[in-house]
Write a structure and sequence with these properties.
With 114 residues, the chain is mostly helical. It folds into 2 domains: 1-39, no CATH class; 43-114. Helix content is 78%, strand content 0%. It has 4 helices and no strands. It has helices spanning 3-7, 13-34, 45-72, 78-111. Helix 3 (45-72) runs antiparallel to helix 4. The longest helix is centred in the C-terminal third of the chain and has 34 residues, at 78-111. The protein is flat and about 65 Å long.
Length: 114
């Protein structure tokens, strides 16, 4: 399902996610507009990397906790557990690919002659 079909009244997870993103964007704009002393938004590349690593770590911890709860008790839903495991795996794979690209760029800069 494409974003265009979601905008035209399609329902489901994609439409819900798009709606939540719009709501969050609106809330962020309102907060920024009402802040009398806005802080400068200067985050470094390393801050972004650390934030990404923390998010992936959090996803893996949630996945591990859900898997443990499912093994111990019958309260946990299999679908939710598998979804959390898949999200953690995708996040980790993305992090590895970003790392590889950063290393490639670093090696390319180091090979440049000055």
């Amino acid at each position: 399902m494409s974003i265009i079909s979601q905008k035209n009244g399609a329902t489901g997870f994609g439409a819900k996610l798009l709606s939540e993103l719009r709501d969050e964007s609106y809330r962020n704009k309102m907060i920024a507009a009402n802040d009398p002393n806005p802080a400068p938004k200067s985050t470094s590349f390393s801050d972004h990397l650390l934030n990404g690593i923390k998010q992936v770590d959090g996803m893996q911890k949630v996945s591990d906790k859900m898997a443990t709860e499912m093994a111990v008790s019958d309260k946990q839903n299999l679908h939710e557990t598998m979804l959390a495991a898949s999200q953690a795996e995708l996040g980790f794979n993305l992090m590895v690919q970003v790392r590889n690209k950063v290393l490639e760029a670093y090696q390319e800069v180091m090979r440049m002659q000055v």
